[in-house]
Structures are given as structure tokens and as C-alpha cells.
Amino acid sequence: MNLPLFIARRYFFSKHKKQFINVISILSMIEVAVGTIALILVLSVFNGLQELIQGLHDTFNPELKVEPIKGKSFEVSSQLIKKIEAVPGVKIVSEIIEDNAVLRYKNGQMVVKVKGVSENYLEQTRMDSAIRKGEFALYKNGRPRAVIGQGVQYTLAIGLRNDFDALQLWYPKKVKKITLGINAEKKLINKKAIFPIGVFSLEQQYDASYVFVPLKFAANLLQYDNRRTSLEIQLKEKADTDATKKGIKEVLGNNFKVLDRNEQQANLLKAIQIEKLFVYITLSFILLVASINIFFSLMMLMIDKKKDVAVLLSMGASTKIIRKIFMMEGGIIAFSGAIIGLLVATTLAILQQKYGFIGMGTSTTVVEAYPVKLKSIDFIFTCITIVLITFLAAYYPARKASQIDVRENLT
User: Fold this and answer.
1) Other beta carbons within 10 Å of 358
2) pLDDT digits (tens, 9 = 90+) for 354-385
3) Residue 348: which domain range?
4) pTM for this model (two decimals)
């Protein structure tokens, strides 16, 4: 029999314990439960939002992306493409030209990111689920077409069915000398007209700035010729990402970097993790407040049970056993609340996943209800936090209890 645990359990459920001590113990347990519920649910919402945001970015970002280490663009040849396609695991290699340009429509204008993509980009089908109006196509009746972000459409009030007003894309020409005059604009600015065929919506970062156009159209507008800013690679089903990435690096050499999806959105993932950390620290203060009540509850219990402790010491109980009794008493209070909190939080999270009864509060969001995902690591860190806080709260009362004077409390 574990004597300290047995006595601590008897103290916790004792009917002879002072009523105000019972009240404080119950309040402490409830506070721990509430703190645990808040911590688990908020961290689970962060997990859900992270997964949702990653999913949206994964729709836009390729499985692997090739970029030059130095400079903005690099020369691409059919031989280079064939070498990459020969790497085991590679399915599609799409050529990309991406640069800023001015988009003009009727009387409005804005700076956009023009993303020229090769025709096999459509075979990757990543963007199909993001189309809100029209279709994702690069040509119609042999003429180039543009797919624009929903934010771009709203900003310039672009109509898909308007066959009279085309999108005007402007880009500065590469000239050695700048000359002024009547025809200066033609000499300095490259202009191309294109009609929109579809509207996509993913995430504000992309919706408010991106315009997809055919690769040849972008090469002519931006004067890239055979140069490309990146290559976007789709892998075969069940292909090993790390092994394929390594194979592509061996083919390309040291002048290129090959990025997987996590590396492409490293800053975003880091920002989410930092936010989650600060939320975890903030909500841990709720548990810290609960620990103050545990501290006072144990201090009053120690005063109330001075005679019991003196009897135990006179019967040969060591000071270590007395400390353990009060440490375990604090543990029972904290972990009773923690278990209740974990069960309630898990139940609420599962109900939210299934029924989505707490909505995002706006019709413009990608999902109607808050996304929630339970992770075992959150439960582990919550339990570790409770253990540390309980130890800190119970240590001083336990030490004071072990220092009780036997003669003074038995007379």
C-alpha cells in the first residue's frame, strides 16, 4: 500500500475537513479544469487553422520547386527539362515565369504578379478546386487567356463576360538609354492585352495580386526569352519526396535550390508556431492562478491537520512521507481537475469537428466553422505544465508540514 497516497486520498474526500478548505479545494479543481479546457481547445483550433492554411498554400505551391541560388532567373532548355523528368518520382515539370507588372482595366490600375505557366501546368490540376468563376484555361479559340485572383477582380471590377474591354498588362522594356518624346511610351513600356477567362480564390495573399497567363505570353511581355524564374514539379503517386528532391539536386548541381512545400512556406509555418507558443504561455497563466488556490488550500489543510501530522511523526513516519502526503494531496486536486478538463475539451473538440456548431462569423471565409484538430503533443505539454505548476504550488506547504513540532502539537 502506498501510505502517502492513501492518507492524501482520505484527506481529499474527508467529511471532517473544514468546510472552507473543501470549498477552496473544489474551486482549485474547477479552475484547473477550466484552464485545461481552454488550453486544449485553443491549441486544437490553432492546429486546425494551421492545417487549413497549409492546405490552401499547398494548392498554390508545388510539391517541389526549383529556383536559382543567385539571381532572379535562369536559362532553361529542353535538355534540362528532360534530365529532370528522368529522375525517378518526377511526373510533371512546369516552366514558370513570375514577375511584377502593372494591370490596367478601364480607368483603374494596380500592380500584380504575372505568373506565366507552361501548358502542362493544367495537368497538375492543383488550382482546379480554387476556381470560383469561369475555368482555369490558358487558351480559348487559340487566343491567350488570363485567370485572375478574386481580389484583383474586385479591385478593378473586372467582368469575365466583357468582350470589349481587355486587361492591359504593362512592363518596362530593357533599354540602355531613356529618351523622351512623342513615342517615348512605346519605346519604354511593353504592353500586352489579354481577356480573363476565370477567377480563383485561395487566400488573400494570392487572390489580391496574382494573374495567371500562358508562358509564351509572359515571356513576350516580360522579355524573358528562354529564361525562367522557377520550375514547379509534381511527383508521381507514392513517390518519396526526399529521394526525388535529392535526385533533382544531383542533376542540377550547386547553382540551384530544390524546395519542398514546408521550405516554400517556412516563414508562414514559423509564424504560426510562434503564435501558438505565445497562446500556450498566456493560457498557462490560468493554470498558474489555479495553483495559487491549491497553495492556500494545502496551507490551510496543513494547519487543520497539524495534530494528525504530529501523531504520524511520533509513530515513526519520516519527514519525507509527510512531504509526500501533501504533495500528493495537491496532485489529487490538480489532476482531478485536469482529467475532467481533458475529457470535456476532447468531447467539445470532437463535437466541433463533427457538427461545427461554432462558426467563423462571416460568409467570406473558406470554411463555415472553426477547424479543430486534436494533437497528442498538446495533451503532453498540458500535462507537463500541470505537473510543474502543482509541484511549485505544493512544495512549500509540504515542506512546512514536515517541519511541524511534535511536542507542541501533541500537548
Assistant:
1) 14
2) 887 777 665 555 667 788 899 999 999 888 88
3) 3-45+268-352+374-410
4) 0.76
201 and 84 in a common domain: yes
Residues 213 and 291 in one domain: no
C-alpha cell at 236: 508521381
Q: Which of 261, 278, 311 is the last residue of a domain?
A: 261
- Axis-axis angle for helices 319-355, 3-13 (nearest 10): 60
**Residue 202 domain-assigned?**
yes
C-alpha cell at 9: 486520498
Could you tell me if residue 108 is left (phi over 0), alpha (psi between -120 and 50 degrees) or otherwise beta?
Answer: beta
Q: What is the DSSP string of 183-235?
A: THHHHHEEEEEEEEEEEE-S-HHHHTTEEEEEHHHHHHHHT-TTEESEEEEEE
With a pLDDT cut of 90, the percent of the chain lying above it is: 40
Query: Burial code of 246-258, b = ≥16 C-beta within 10 A, e = fewer?
Result: ebbeebbeeebeb
Cα separation of 179 and 183, whole Å? 9
| Number of domains into which the chain is organized | 2
Instruction: For residues 274 and 257, state if they share a domain.
Output: no
Which range is most confident: 288-297, 313-322, 338-347, 384-393?
Answer: 338-347
209: which 3 cell numbers? 495580386
Q: What is the DSSP letter of 236?
A: P
Determine the distance from the C-alpha atom of residue 11 to the mean position of all C-alpha atoms in its chain, rounded to a whole number: 45
Q: Is the pLDDT of residue 178 over 60?
A: no
Three-state secondary structure call for residue 116: strand
In a domain, 81, yes or no: yes
| Residue 56 resides in a domain | no
Extract the C-alpha cell encoding 110.
494596380
Domain end point (choices 237, 261, 285): 261
pLDDT for the residue 17: 56
| Pairing of the two strands 230-235 and 167-172 | unpaired
Distances (CA, A) of 315 to 175, 308, 319: 99, 11, 12
Average pLDDT score, the chain: 85
Give yes or no: residues 181 and 110 share one domain: yes
302 plus 390 within the same structural domain: yes
